[in-house]
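P.,

For your records, the input lines for the assembly:
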Amino acid sequence: MKKIGVLGTGIVGQTIGAKLLELGYIVMLGSRTSDNEKAGEWVTKYGTNALQGTFNDTVAFGEMLFNCTKGEASLDILKSCDKKHFSGKILVDVSNPLDFSKGMPPILIPELCNTYSLGEAIQELLPDTKVVKTLNIVTCSVMVNAHTSGGDATMLVAGNDLEAKSQVSELLHQFGWNDIMDLGDIRHARSTEMMLPVWLSIYLTTQNATLAFKIIR
Amino acid sequence: MKKIGVLGTGIVGQTIGAKLLELGYIVMLGSRTSDNEKAGEWVTKYGTNALQGTFNDTVAFGEMLFNCTKGEASLDILKSCDKKHFSGKILVDVSNPLDFSKGMPPILIPELCNTYSLGEAIQELLPDTKVVKTLNIVTCSVMVNAHTSGGDATMLVAGNDLEAKSQVSELLHQFGWNDIMDLGDIRHARSTEMMLPVWLSIYLTTQNATLAFKIIR
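Structure tokens returned:
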């Protein structure tokens, strides 16, 4: 597996894309249009293994996919792509269902909280895809370099497919994560998405985004 | 301050009560009736500084209060007590708004989740009381002995009154907590209560309840 499609051209997509290039993958960054300016700058910066395309191009291209779109838009974006391109692939979902409509700090989108989650909604939308929820509990610089947080933090993983979680965990190791905890099936995406409020509370207190959680057990 | 009222005679109330006795406090354990059997056994076990009473007796008795009742019952129990007894006192709220009605694992009570919390609801019910939300992110054996989790875990605190949080933090130190983080006002009770789902996911995975969270920052 050499080709990875990263959906989303924001700071999360760009950071994960750059890390994957560093690890030797060919990476396409996907956005609404094929000539997205931010993706274009990213491609120019990172050279020959860095590509850009529409969301649909990116899903078709990647042998593995990363959802780095804003949580509030993720489902619509995924629905806009041709379903057949997702079939059998691993989709790593790093997004969070944040609702900024009520001001700061954001709440979670109520219908994707407590009794459901964005991770589950994506899995339900794409039943032939192996959705793995992970990395959503840290900021993107920590996602791709666990040591940025300054300690041996824990990364949580949830998904229905063991082999997919195993492959994603290998990537997580390459991102610097040595303490990886598999919480079980995709329903446990609820738990990890519900850690965002405390992440936000801590960030608002410390003004330091490079925090991470160590599960002491 | 020598007299502490602990509301709730379950394992949480009994454990916190026993720790407070060990620290030299006089402790009343409160329940619906003045002759509650579990409280009676606890009083017999712990001797002269251990008392029992109704919830109302306990609120009247304590110079500081602990809410160790089940989250689904907390508001009704607090409403059933004479409001004047709460006035000016610190109420340490260690409860969580768990809803077991949909099966295991519990969800959070929807109306006390995401945009509100049990901690805030208690503060709104008792505006003259200094509610401090803390300890709710660990099991009770870890609450009173942070080292039980096997590491230098973090305890989160939220509440509107700085002096109250300072007094409670001194108690937390005596419970073994060395890394205490003040998240701000009582609205941040939302964040800490929303950590319960991930606590439950981890517990279901490890079958080990003595877990705790270290915030690496």
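Two observations worth noting. Chain B touches chain A through 40 residues (CB under 8 Å). The longest strand of chain B covers residues 26-31.

Regards
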